[in-house]
Specification:
This protein is α/β, with parallel strands linked by helices. 49% of the residues lie in helices and 18% in strands. The chain has 12 helices and 9 strands. α1 runs parallel beside α3 and α3 runs parallel beside α5. It binds ligand C2E and magnesium ion (MG) (3 copies). It comes from Variovorax soli. This is Diguanylate cyclase (GGDEF)-like protein.
Length: 292
């Protein structure tokens, strides 16, 4: 009897799994259509020099303006396509759109670089560097450094040789690469030393915890010492309050990004936000609502 019940359970599980896979496949189909119908948009979150009161760039963060379900955050759809060709399509769109937006801001007198998150699968595409050059080539008034990339530490460890080649090629093209979510992938000093990334971004989990948790603080300190020793810039994400900014600056980390500085904003709001921030140094932790 137990065997039979077990068998039925397995059968039920298979069916549930098949149904889930079917639904995910449908959603992927919708994502593909959504790209064609221009349903995806980018929000831009400022990255600043907290000490000097300067904006050093903005990070492009994808959202899906779904006609029925409203505005969807990346967590609702990016994981579903990470292992599919679709993530390359969406990523290529994000690069093209970011470069176009940078050119539009420049035409309006606002000079800022835009960093784009690149998925592991997209990163390993042989023609990615050519695509970067293609998108930049459409706007000869932009210098290559206007585009920056953020890659994950975990990808760099898994496919070290390919990722190292990619970063070298980006450097040659003039596109700086940052290692995102640093500290979550347990990569060693040796890895970082051999990868010519211009900056590392401290993962927000450590930054958020550093005020109350001595261990998070120790990790932040350790990463900052290491970055300095290897001659790389360090930027903190998850700066949620003035206290976080102060604690980071006390440790010599002056570059930050987080809700305490600004939420991700629609592109129309970026020029005024930059002007306002740079008009009123030092940083006092003005918070702004997203997408307003
Ligand atoms: P990420 O690249 O590490 O981006 C930072 C995420 O943290 C963003 O969430 C941002 O809104 C959020 N954040 C910023 N400051 C704070 C803060 O002070 N506190 C807290 N709690 N959160 C903060 P978002 O936009 O939901 O993006 C989540 C992740 O989705 C990104 O993590 C990135 O891995 C991925 N993603 C976003 N846009 C793209 C894209 O265009 N392509 C790909 N492949 N992935 C993307
Ligand atoms: Mg990022
Ligand atoms: Mg990050
Ligand atoms: Mg993250």
């Amino acid at each position: 009897f137990a065997k039979r019940a077990g068998g039925q359970q397995v059968h039920f599980f298979d069916e549930a799994q098949a149904l889930e896979e079917q639904q995910e496949q449908l959603l992927r189909q919708r994502i593909k259509e959504g790209i064609g119908r221009n349903e995806f948009i980018l929000a831009y979150q400022p990255k600043v020099d907290m000490q000097r009161g300067l904006v050093i760039g903005v990070e492009a963060l994808v959202r899906w303006q779904h006609p029925e379900r409203g505005l969807l955050q990346p967590a609702a759809f990016v994981p579903l396509i990470e292992d599919h060709e679709l993530v390359e399509e969406l990523g290529d769109w994000a690069i093209g759109e970011s470069v176009r937006q940078a050119a539009a801001w420049l035409a309006a007198g606002v000079k800022t670089s835009v960093s784009v998150n690149i998925s592991p699968r997209h990163l390993l595409r042989a023609d990615l560097v050519d695509r970067l050059a293609f998108h930049l080539g459409r706007f000869p008034q932009l210098h290559a450094g206007v585009l920056e990339l953020e890659i994950l530490e975990t990808t760099a460890i898994k496919d070290f040789a390919a990722v190292a080649d990619f970063i070298h090629a980006c450097k040659k093209l003039g596109v700086p690469v940052t290692m995102d979510d640093f500290g979550t992938g347990y990569s060693s000093l040796t890895y970082l030393r051999r990868l010519p990334v211009s900056a590392i971004k401290l993962d927000q989990s450590f930054v958020r915890g550093m005020l109350e948790d001595a261990e998070d603080r120790a990790i932040v300190e350790g990463i900052l010492v290491m970055a300095r020793g290897l001659g790389r810039k360090a930027i903190a994400e998850g700066v949620e309050s003035v206290a976080h900014g102060d604690a980071l600056m006390a440790l010599g980390c002056t570059l930050g990004q987080g809700y305490g500085i600004s939420r991700p904003l629609s592109p129309e709001r970026i020029p005024d936000w930059i002007a306002g921030f740079e008009r009123s140094p030092p940083w006092r932790g003005t918070t702004v609502a997203e997408q307003g």
